Structure formats: structure tokens, C-alpha cells
Amino acid sequence: MMRDQGSSRWARRVRGGVGKARTALATLSVLASLLAATGCARGPDVEASGLGLRRVVIYRNGVAYFEREGRIDAEQVTFRVRKEKVGDFLATLAVMEAGGSSVRSASFPVEVDEPGEEGDEEPTDPRFEVLLKPPPPQKGAAKKKERMETVRLTLDGREHDLVVGYVAETPVWRPSYRLVLGEQRGASGTGGAGSGGSGGKGSARQGGKTAHLQAWGIVQNLSGEDWKGVKLTLVAGAPLAFQATLDQPSIPVRPVVTDQGEVIASVPTSETSLAQGGEAPPPPPPPPPSMPMEHEAEMDADDSSLRAEAGKLEGKADRPATTRGRVTRPEPKKAYAPMAPPAGAASGMPVQRGPATGDGYMYDLAEQKPAMPAAPRNMSALAAVAVEAGNTRYELPFTVDVPDKSATMVLLMAREVTGESIFLYAPDGGVPDSSTHPFRVARFKNETQGLLERGPIAVFENGAFLGQGMVDPLPPGATTTVPFALERALAVDRNREETQEGSRLAKIESGMIEIERDWVVHTKYAIRNGSEDAAKTLVKHPRLHGTRLHNVPKETEDNLGTGSALLPIAVPARGSAVLDVDERRTYRQQVDWLSQLADDAVKGYLKDPRSEAAVVQQLGQAWEMRGKLRPAVDERDKLGNEQARLSQQSEELRRNLRAIEKNKTAEDLRRDLTERLAKASARLDEITKRLIVLEMQINELEVRFRDLTQAIRMVRPPSPVRATP
């Protein structure tokens, strides 16, 4: 009784602690130093003039999305980006601005290796090669990576409210769980981020066993700057991300083409055609008249109107306007500079181009179209898309402070779930005794609306710490079983048997019959319980490839993805129980019409209500004939065996008579052997006559039976029985 009261007080303290954590903005800041502060400060990876960090979205693939915003009244925004981060910064840079983007271009330096620059590195000391030691790292390469580069966004010089987002490398956030077992169903759960509330669809229900689940997220800040008052979002997903090298120039190698003239290596033979009568071919058409020079001048003057018309067609024309095969170019003042993208390019808006001309020039059709609206300032829409795409998002409803080179642990979710402590028999090579003893496990269901990522879990019950385990990625609605201790009060023994069972008609075609049989494997688990309490146990049975479970317990979970099945069994206190796992694999084989397997299969088909009526009628006639043929064959086989036995016996009698032929004292024995030989010969004569008659009958019956079976065609087994409404 005192233990129950202590457990209740401990559980109340846990729930009270969770409530205090929520009232305190649900954050537990563990400001642990991650790197020793030696030497000079490294500084932030990205600096922006006039744009403060407002939002950080961290993923599970080593990247994070950073969002900065601020009011800018200048002609450009300057970013200071670390050299090794410039490529990712340019590849993911997005600018959001109400009323359309004012960014005209984004400029950045390009590094070109000068002749002799690679030789600036110090030569390797040959003594390191003799000592088989690695040479010291080159200082120049490290300084090049740490160098800060400048990226400038050119604006129109007016006042703007800018939101700039980009992706950079960041340590993955790590989940950690707490599971408190043994609470009663009905207590209201404490909601959290992503918990769905205490009274929603996933709230605690009356009755059954329950557990209290907490999920924490650990975030590490190694960006080089303090995160102050940022909106933090943790995403349980790993979108595709890669390292980009857009800051490095790339010039592809072109093939070298040489002109060495043309030489005909052989003289082609001529071909002569004889003259043919008929109409002469029509004359070639006259050449087109030459265009006057004034017309050409008029077309040159109107080429700007032709380009405007091409812009209205929005790329539907096959090629720009030409004069006498010459492509007309637009005015130089309307051409775009290669390094200055149009408005909207920096924000990710597509720039539509017209068809390419023969000289590689492309008309810009976006110049005639209205400006595309920019992306919204608030990037929460992207997070909503991530949720729709299957990623679980934990967005904290408050701002947090995460100093540089520190870690913060935040509470993501706290709620009641269906869970209990049971036993699991799952042999593990890393735990030798697990082949004979089951694990004690915590089994609970993910009743949240999101994915629970892989992470450690600590299990508590009755005010005590039970152990730790690892939770694999758990989708919504799925149930996990986490081992945390080995139970030696239960012992397991197993054995395996293989048999072949059943005979079902599968196919009849061209006078051949095929049947289906089951290869059956019985794996029996004998569990002995030496404790004073009944033990609810799950057996993790490795599935045999291509088999199906047959006649298993109702709550069996067949996990095809893991190649195993969880089968429940209740073991009484101080008692034992046996679990029989029946796995079957169906195979086909051809059999003889007169075999017992064929007889069992056909009789089962004739009694099956799913069978085809026409096939049943034909099989009925054939089996009536088989009823006459089979006894005759059996009698023939029996007489044949007797004939062989009597023939062997007669031959032995004759050898014995020849042996005592000159022995006058063996008259009685000679008389007895002679009588036995006469009886055997008489029986042989009877058998021979009967076999002749049977052979004639069997031949006739076989012909008739063969004709009946040749007419039967059944290519697939009966369809499953449909439930009546």
C-alpha cells in the first residue's frame, strides 16, 4: 500500500514537472559547452547587414533553414559568407518581399587559380615518409576555407521589408523519450507540441493500460552566432539536400576538330539506266524575285514590332522573325547582362524565355508579362507543405535563445498513450542468454499525429528506473516493443517439425492432373514460468520465405517488412505453455489418376460448392469409370505379386527335387515336394488365366477412362467463397 502511494506521488511529481515545464515555455536549456574556447573566436558562418535572424528550421539530414528579416533602405544588402558555405548559400537563397521582389542581381567573387598559386604550399618533409607519419596539415588550405566572402544583393534603392532564407549545414536535432508505465487509464493527458490536446482524437480513453510518454528534442548551435528570440522548428524528416559548388567556375572540355581535307580512297562505279518512254519531267520552278532594298529597310525598321508580337505569342512561334535567312537582333539596350538576372530570379521565380535562334540568342518574354507575385513573407506555408508531404513538424509556439557553441533541450510532446510492460522472446546474437530467456519490454502505441524519430528511451515504473532502450522510427498509429532488461524467471525451449499435408485439385488439362499440397513447418515454443505472476509474452518468430501463417492466435502481428511475426501467449504463474507456429507453403505436382492423392483431390472438388458445374459433371462420369478400373488394377497387381511368389517357390521346389533325385532314403520328402510343386503349378495356371481376363478388361476401361479425362479442362482452382449480404 505504501509503495502504491509512493508511486502515485512520484507520478504526480512527473506530471507536475511537465506542467511547470509548459508554464515556463516548455524549455529546458542545457547550456553545455560543445567546443573548448581556444584561440580566436571563429565567428558566424553568415552575416547580413540589417537582417536579423528570426527563424531556424532544423532537419534530420545535417541541414537547417535560416530565415532573416529586416527593413532595408539602401541600394544593396551585403552578406558575409564563409568560403566553404558560399555554394550552399547561393543554391538555396530565397528572397521574399510583399508586392514583388526588388532584387536586381546577386554578385559574388569568383576565385581563379593563378599560375604558381598551387606551388605556394610548403613541400612535404621527406622525413615524415621515412617515419611513416602523416605530414602536418597545410595552413593555407585551412585559412582558405575560413575566409569570409562577400555576396551582394542589388536593390532598387527604395525602402523594403525583406525576408531572406537560405540553407546551411547544422548538426541534426536528436530526440529523447521518457516512458512512465503503470498509470491508470482515464487521467487527462498533458498535451504538448504535436500531441493533439487532451480531449482530441488521440486523448486517453477509459479502461485498459496506459503509459505517459514524453518526447524531448536536443538542438546544438554551431553556427558561430547566438540565436536570440528565434522561432525554432524541428522537422522529423530528411529532405534531399546536397553540397552545391555554384561559386566555383566550371568550363567543360570541348572536343578538338581538325580539318585535314578530304581524300576519296576508292573510285565508285557508275550505274547506267536505259532510256524509257513517257512524259518529260516538269521544268523546275522559277527562282523567287529578289526583294527590293526599300522592303528590306522596312523590315529592319519593323523588327522591334515583330519581337513584341513574339512576346505576345508567349513562345508559341517556332522561330523569331528573319529577313532573307538573317536573324534580326533586338536593340542592345534591351538585352540582359549575363550577371544581372531580372527581378524575381533571386526569389526563385521562373524567367520565361523565347525560342533559341540559330546564333544562340534567346528572347526574354518575361519582359512583356506582368510581374509575378513574390512568395509570402511568413515561411510557415513551407512547413505546412512539409506536413502534407509526410514530414512531421514540431514548431514551438514561443521564441527561444540558443547561445553559440551550446545545446538546448526542449519539450516537444507529453501525453498518455496505450502502453504496458510485457515480455518478448527475441533471440539476439549480442545477448547469448536471450536464446533461452525473454526480454522485459515496454510496448506502447504512437497515438500522436506525427512520426517519432529514432532515439533513446528511459523506462520508469512504480517510481523506479527500469532501464533504457532504443525506439526505431515509429509512424502514427504504429506500435513498438522496446527491450530494456533480460528476464531469467522465464525459460524458453523450441523445436521444429516438417510434414506434407493436403491434396487439392489445381489443374486438369490434356489428360494430365495437377494437385496442390502444403509443405508444413511446425515450430513449437515451450515456455516455463518460475515467477509468482502470470506472464504475457510475445514470441518474435522469424518467418520462412514464401510461407503463410495458419491457425495462429488472434492478436498475431505479421510484420512482412521485418520478416518476422509477433505471436502472443499467456503463461500462468508457476506453470508452462506451448505455442505452435504453423507455417505453410503451397506447391504443385503432377500425380497419377489412379493414385490416392488424385482420389482425395477430386472427391474434395466434387464436394466443393465453388466448383464449376460442367467440370463436376465430367469428373463424376470419369470417376464412375475409375471406380471400375481401380479394383481391376488392384486385383491385377495382387495376382501379379502372387504369381511372382509362386514362380519363385516352384523354382526352389524343382531345385530340391533335383538334389534328392538319386537318394533312395528320401522317398517321403520327394513325395511331399512333388505334391507342393503340383499345387503351386495349378495355382499358377489359375492366376495366368485370370490375369489374361483382367488385362483385357483393364485395357478396355483405360481407353474409356482416358477418353473421359481428355475432355476435361480445368485451368484454375475454385474461386474463394463470397460472403452473402
Automatic annotation (TrEMBL):
**Biased segments, Basic and acidic residues type:** 293-321
Q: Where is the composition biased (Acidic residues)?
A: 111-123
- Keyword Metal-binding listed? The answer is no
Q: Where does the record place Pro residues bias?
A: 280-291
Query: Which parts form a coiled-coil structure per UniProt?
Result: 636-711
Q: Which UniProt keywords apply?
A: Coiled coil
Q: Where is the composition biased (Gly residues)?
A: 188-202
The cross-references to PANTHER family, in alphabetical order and at most eight, read: DUF4139 DOMAIN-CONTAINING PROTEIN (PTHR31005)
What protein name does the entry list? DUF4139 domain-containing protein
Natural source organism: Chondromyces apiculatus DSM 436
